[in-house]
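Journal club prep — side note

Before the paper discussion, L.F. wants everyone to see what a predicted structure for a comparable chain looks like in token form. Sequence:
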Amino acid sequence: MENNKSPTGNLEKSEDPKSEIPSYKNGKRPAISLHIFIIVTITLAAIAVSIFIGQINHRKTIQLATEQFNKQQLILARSAAVGVENFMVGIETDLLALSNFPVVQRMETAHMKS
């Protein structure tokens, strides 16, 4: 078996240049500014998407809150209408009951004004 170690103890590089595949074009790393540009672009895209989704959610939340408020107001209005109607029915019933008393039937308009 061959000894691939040099006298310093490091592994020797292969003699065949085709066996080594450079990881970068022309064997050079891209400039740091390209890395920064890519990171900034991805970050800005993520921020833009987040803002867009946030606006959509905000609109939907406002719409749902408005619909819920309107439904609650309608329920309250109907409840108030039923309360007023019951009150008026009660007054009408009381007036009809009072009208059957002989004392009320004999009242004159002069007594009612005072």
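L.F.'s comment for the group: Residues 32-99 form the longest helix (68 residues). Keep this in mind when we get to the figures.
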